[in-house]
Amino acid sequence: MKFFIDTANLEEIRKAQDLGILDGVTTNPSLMAKEGISGDEAVLQHYKDICDVVADKVSAEVIATDFEGMITEGERLAAIDPKIVVKIPMTENGVKAVKYLSDKGIRTNCTLIFSATQALIAAKAGATYVSPFIGRLDDIATEGMGLIRDIVTIFNNYPAIETEVLAASVRGNMHLLDCAKAGAHVATCPYKVIASLTKHPLTDRGLEQFLADHAKAQELAAV
Ligand code: E4P
After folding, report:
1. Residue 15's CATH number
2. I need a surface site. Which of 78, 93, 167, 176 has the fewest CB within 10 A?
3. Nearest Cα to 168, choosing from 61, 27, 54?
4. Opening angle at CA 75, ends 74 and 77, nearest 5
């Protein structure tokens, strides 16, 4: 499973990149706003800065909702760097834009997927990724992981589908574990979730003991 980081914060992206396990980045307009990035030039520059940190696959989301606007903005974002994946919301215009951009060889990530049929039509339009949102479904008492499992099953039923399932709105360690069990191709998570993957209290306790025993042996050897 590929690991993407879900943030527009450069420091977090650098830290995840330094771990050596990062496969890509997803952003969205809310995450960009959280970093105080606004205005066309600042937005383009920020995506450039992200592309300078990671090897590939930086999702940059369009703001336009009409077809013409989406493709103009999508082409503009794609021109920033070959690492850009154009993120398009799941709407009728979005599906048309995914098809248009995919036909032009531009990679797309169809976002705000909340049903398996939305994922299927995005795949049919040639999306490189579909982003089903787990956490936001859980928030309304609907099992988000069930959606991941359904989409993975459907895509596996049709080997001609090359679209990857990019599990989004991942809120914790269990979500990530279940995504891996379900066979999601990618999970995008906040930095705190990535960092939590290295943690276990028994690891801490075990390491403490190893170091203490080593120090004791050194002391005895020195006597
Ligand atoms: C996906 O690409 C979105 O940016 C993201 O995962 C949304 O997560 P949230 O529901 O925690 O905001």
Report:
1. 3.20.20.70
2. 93
3. 27
4. 65
Number of domains in the chain: 1
What is the ipTM, given to two decimal places? 0.97
pTM of the complete model: 0.95
Quick one: CA dihedral 2, 176, 17, 128, positive or negative?
positive
Q: Which of 170, 166, 69, 176 is nearest to 122 (CA)?
A: 166
CB 167 within 8 A of CB 181: no
| C-alpha distance from residue 52 to each of 36, 87, 136 (Å) | 19, 19, 31
The residue segments making up the domain with residue 81 are: 2-222
Q: How far is the CA of 106 from the centre of ligand 1 (A)?
A: 22
pLDDT digits (tens, 9 = 90+) for 35-92: 999 999 999 999 999 999 999 999 999 999 999 999 999 999 999 999 999 999 999 9
